[in-house]
Amino acid sequence: MSRKAKTPVTRVGVGDQFPQLNLTGISGESIAIPDPGGALTHLQFRRFAGCPICNLHLRSISNRLSEITAAGVREVVVFHSTSKELRKYEADLPFHVVGDPDKELYHRFGVEAWARAILKPGAWRALPRGWWHAVKTAITKRRALMPANPTNGNLGLPADMLIDADGRVAAVKYGAHAYDQWSVDELLEMARPRASRA
To answer: How far is CA 107 from CA 22, 103, 104, 113, in A?
Structure first.
Protein backbone atom coordinates (compact mmCIF):
# COMPACT_ATOMS: atom_id res chain seq x y z
CA MET A 1 0.00 0.00 0.00
CA SER A 2 1.30 3.47 -0.83
CA ARG A 3 1.33 6.44 1.53
CA LYS A 4 -1.03 8.72 -0.37
CA ALA A 5 -3.50 11.17 1.09
CA LYS A 6 -6.22 9.28 2.91
CA THR A 7 -9.40 8.56 0.99
CA PRO A 8 -12.58 9.65 2.82
CA VAL A 9 -14.17 6.95 4.97
CA THR A 10 -17.10 5.33 3.20
CA ARG A 11 -18.88 2.21 4.41
CA VAL A 12 -19.98 0.14 1.44
CA GLY A 13 -23.56 -1.06 1.05
CA VAL A 14 -25.34 -3.76 -0.92
CA GLY A 15 -25.66 -2.72 -4.56
CA ASP A 16 -22.76 -0.25 -4.43
CA GLN A 17 -20.16 -0.33 -7.18
CA PHE A 18 -16.96 -1.49 -5.52
CA PRO A 19 -13.82 0.33 -6.68
CA GLN A 20 -11.25 -1.56 -8.70
CA LEU A 21 -8.34 -2.53 -6.49
CA ASN A 22 -4.95 -4.00 -7.34
CA LEU A 23 -3.49 -5.38 -4.15
CA THR A 24 -0.27 -7.25 -3.43
CA GLY A 25 -0.39 -10.39 -1.34
CA ILE A 26 2.20 -11.32 1.28
CA SER A 27 3.83 -13.70 -1.22
CA GLY A 28 4.13 -10.92 -3.80
CA GLU A 29 1.18 -12.02 -5.94
CA SER A 30 -1.06 -9.47 -7.63
CA ILE A 31 -4.71 -9.57 -6.51
CA ALA A 32 -7.32 -7.74 -8.58
CA ILE A 33 -10.72 -6.92 -7.10
CA PRO A 34 -13.21 -7.56 -8.63
CA ASP A 35 -11.93 -10.90 -9.87
CA PRO A 36 -11.07 -10.79 -13.58
CA GLY A 37 -11.68 -14.54 -13.75
CA GLY A 38 -15.38 -14.15 -12.94
CA ALA A 39 -15.43 -15.43 -9.35
CA LEU A 40 -17.15 -13.75 -6.47
CA THR A 41 -14.65 -12.20 -4.08
CA HIS A 42 -15.12 -12.62 -0.35
CA LEU A 43 -13.05 -9.74 0.99
CA GLN A 44 -12.45 -10.18 4.70
CA PHE A 45 -11.03 -7.55 7.01
CA ARG A 46 -9.54 -9.31 10.01
CA ARG A 47 -7.48 -7.98 12.90
CA PHE A 48 -3.75 -8.66 13.41
CA ALA A 49 -1.32 -11.43 12.49
CA GLY A 50 -1.64 -14.22 15.03
CA CYS A 51 -4.97 -12.98 16.44
CA PRO A 52 -6.41 -16.08 18.16
CA ILE A 53 -10.01 -14.99 17.51
CA CYS A 54 -9.34 -14.38 13.81
CA ASN A 55 -7.44 -17.63 13.47
CA LEU A 56 -10.32 -19.57 14.99
CA HIS A 57 -12.60 -18.23 12.26
CA LEU A 58 -10.03 -18.65 9.49
CA ARG A 59 -9.58 -22.32 10.44
CA SER A 60 -13.22 -22.83 9.49
CA ILE A 61 -12.55 -21.11 6.16
CA SER A 62 -9.45 -23.24 5.54
CA ASN A 63 -11.21 -26.48 6.46
CA ARG A 64 -14.00 -25.82 3.95
CA LEU A 65 -12.05 -23.95 1.30
CA SER A 66 -12.84 -26.54 -1.38
CA GLU A 67 -16.58 -25.98 -0.81
CA ILE A 68 -16.12 -22.22 -0.95
CA THR A 69 -14.12 -22.43 -4.18
CA ALA A 70 -16.66 -24.82 -5.71
CA ALA A 71 -19.37 -22.23 -4.96
CA GLY A 72 -17.46 -19.74 -7.14
CA VAL A 73 -15.92 -17.70 -4.33
CA ARG A 74 -12.33 -16.48 -4.04
CA GLU A 75 -11.05 -15.59 -0.56
CA VAL A 76 -9.00 -12.42 0.03
CA VAL A 77 -8.15 -11.67 3.67
CA VAL A 78 -6.72 -8.34 4.85
CA PHE A 79 -4.93 -7.85 8.19
CA HIS A 80 -3.70 -4.60 9.72
CA SER A 81 -0.24 -6.16 10.08
CA THR A 82 2.97 -6.13 8.07
CA SER A 83 3.66 -8.78 5.45
CA LYS A 84 6.67 -9.88 7.51
CA GLU A 85 4.45 -10.53 10.54
CA LEU A 86 1.88 -12.39 8.44
CA ARG A 87 4.44 -14.68 6.81
CA LYS A 88 4.97 -16.34 10.21
CA TYR A 89 1.45 -17.77 9.83
CA GLU A 90 1.40 -18.19 6.03
CA ALA A 91 1.39 -21.99 6.15
CA ASP A 92 -2.03 -21.91 7.87
CA LEU A 93 -3.56 -19.36 5.47
CA PRO A 94 -4.23 -21.14 2.13
CA PHE A 95 -5.78 -18.14 0.39
CA HIS A 96 -4.80 -14.62 -0.64
CA VAL A 97 -3.56 -12.62 2.36
CA VAL A 98 -2.84 -8.88 2.28
CA GLY A 99 -0.98 -6.85 4.89
CA ASP A 100 -2.24 -3.30 5.44
CA PRO A 101 -0.14 -1.93 8.32
CA ASP A 102 -1.04 1.68 7.42
CA LYS A 103 -4.74 0.72 7.57
CA GLU A 104 -5.43 2.47 4.26
CA LEU A 105 -8.03 -0.10 3.22
CA TYR A 106 -9.60 -0.15 6.70
CA HIS A 107 -9.96 3.62 6.60
CA ARG A 108 -11.19 3.68 3.02
CA PHE A 109 -14.01 1.22 3.68
CA GLY A 110 -14.93 2.33 7.19
CA VAL A 111 -13.67 -0.74 9.06
CA GLU A 112 -13.23 0.52 12.59
CA ALA A 113 -11.41 -0.23 15.82
CA TRP A 114 -13.18 0.14 19.16
CA ALA A 115 -12.84 -1.21 22.70
CA ARG A 116 -16.11 -3.05 22.08
CA ALA A 117 -14.18 -5.38 19.76
CA ILE A 118 -13.17 -7.48 22.76
CA LEU A 119 -15.69 -6.32 25.37
CA LYS A 120 -18.79 -8.06 24.02
CA PRO A 121 -19.75 -11.59 25.12
CA GLY A 122 -19.46 -12.95 21.57
CA ALA A 123 -15.75 -12.13 21.60
CA TRP A 124 -15.28 -13.50 25.13
CA ARG A 125 -16.77 -16.85 24.16
CA ALA A 126 -14.39 -17.20 21.19
CA LEU A 127 -11.22 -16.13 22.99
CA PRO A 128 -10.57 -19.27 25.12
CA ARG A 129 -11.06 -21.57 22.10
CA GLY A 130 -8.89 -19.30 19.98
CA TRP A 131 -6.11 -19.27 22.56
CA TRP A 132 -6.27 -23.06 22.98
CA HIS A 133 -5.96 -23.62 19.22
CA ALA A 134 -3.17 -21.02 18.95
CA VAL A 135 -1.11 -22.67 21.68
CA LYS A 136 -1.76 -26.16 20.30
CA THR A 137 -0.76 -25.08 16.79
CA ALA A 138 2.36 -23.30 18.04
CA ILE A 139 3.49 -26.44 19.87
CA THR A 140 2.53 -29.16 17.39
CA LYS A 141 3.34 -27.28 14.18
CA ARG A 142 6.05 -24.98 15.54
CA ARG A 143 4.16 -21.83 14.60
CA ALA A 144 4.54 -18.38 16.13
CA LEU A 145 2.33 -17.47 19.08
CA MET A 146 0.24 -14.31 19.22
CA PRO A 147 2.47 -11.20 19.30
CA ALA A 148 2.66 -9.34 22.61
CA ASN A 149 2.39 -5.95 20.90
CA PRO A 150 0.56 -6.39 17.56
CA THR A 151 0.78 -3.73 14.87
CA ASN A 152 -2.19 -1.36 15.26
CA GLY A 153 -3.25 -3.00 18.54
CA ASN A 154 -5.95 -5.56 19.29
CA LEU A 155 -9.13 -3.48 19.15
CA GLY A 156 -9.94 -3.93 15.48
CA LEU A 157 -13.39 -4.95 14.28
CA PRO A 158 -13.91 -7.38 11.37
CA ALA A 159 -15.83 -6.84 8.15
CA ASP A 160 -16.98 -9.10 5.31
CA MET A 161 -17.78 -8.03 1.75
CA LEU A 162 -19.00 -10.24 -1.07
CA ILE A 163 -18.23 -8.66 -4.43
CA ASP A 164 -19.61 -9.81 -7.79
CA ALA A 165 -17.32 -10.17 -10.81
CA ASP A 166 -18.91 -7.01 -12.22
CA GLY A 167 -17.86 -5.10 -9.10
CA ARG A 168 -21.26 -4.85 -7.39
CA VAL A 169 -21.41 -5.43 -3.65
CA ALA A 170 -23.65 -8.47 -3.24
CA ALA A 171 -23.56 -8.55 0.57
CA VAL A 172 -21.72 -6.83 3.40
CA LYS A 173 -21.32 -7.18 7.15
CA TYR A 174 -19.51 -4.86 9.55
CA GLY A 175 -18.84 -6.79 12.74
CA ALA A 176 -20.01 -5.53 16.13
CA HIS A 177 -17.22 -7.39 17.97
CA ALA A 178 -14.03 -9.31 17.21
CA TYR A 179 -15.81 -12.60 16.43
CA ASP A 180 -18.77 -11.20 14.52
CA GLN A 181 -18.49 -12.41 10.94
CA TRP A 182 -20.23 -14.63 8.39
CA SER A 183 -19.99 -18.33 9.00
CA VAL A 184 -19.01 -20.56 6.09
CA ASP A 185 -22.62 -21.75 5.82
CA GLU A 186 -23.87 -18.15 5.58
CA LEU A 187 -21.26 -17.35 2.92
CA LEU A 188 -22.22 -20.40 0.85
CA GLU A 189 -25.93 -19.59 1.14
CA MET A 190 -25.30 -16.13 -0.30
CA ALA A 191 -22.87 -17.29 -2.98
CA ARG A 192 -24.54 -20.32 -4.53
CA PRO A 193 -27.51 -18.56 -6.21
CA ARG A 194 -25.17 -16.00 -7.75
CA ALA A 195 -22.70 -18.64 -8.90
CA SER A 196 -25.50 -20.67 -10.55
CA ARG A 197 -26.76 -17.58 -12.41
CA ALA A 198 -23.25 -16.86 -13.62
So the answer is: 17, 6, 5, 10
- Average pLDDT of the chain is 84
pTM of the model: 0.83
Whether 100 and 118 have beta carbons less than 8 Å apart is answered as no
Q: Answer for the pair 85, 99: CB distance below 8 angstroms, yes or no.
A: yes
- pLDDT bin (cut points 50, 70, 90) of residue 178 is confident
3-state secondary structure of 179: coil
pLDDT tens readout for residues 72-107: 999 999 999 999 999 988 888 999 999 999 999 999
**Domain limits, the chain:** 21-197
Identify whether 158 is preceded by a cis peptide bond (ω within 30 of 0).
no
Q: How far apart are CA 157 and CA 111, in angstroms?
A: 7
Who contacts 64 (Cβ-Cβ below 8 Å, separation ≥6)? 184
Amino acid at 100: D
Cβ–Cβ < 8 Å for 87, 148: no
- CA–CA dist 38, 46 (Å, integer): 24
Which class is 21-197 in CATH?
A: alpha beta
Q: Where are the alpha helices (DSSP H) in the chain?
A: 52-63, 65-70, 83-87, 104-108, 116-119, 121-140, 184-197
Distance of CA 131 to the CA centre of its chain: 19
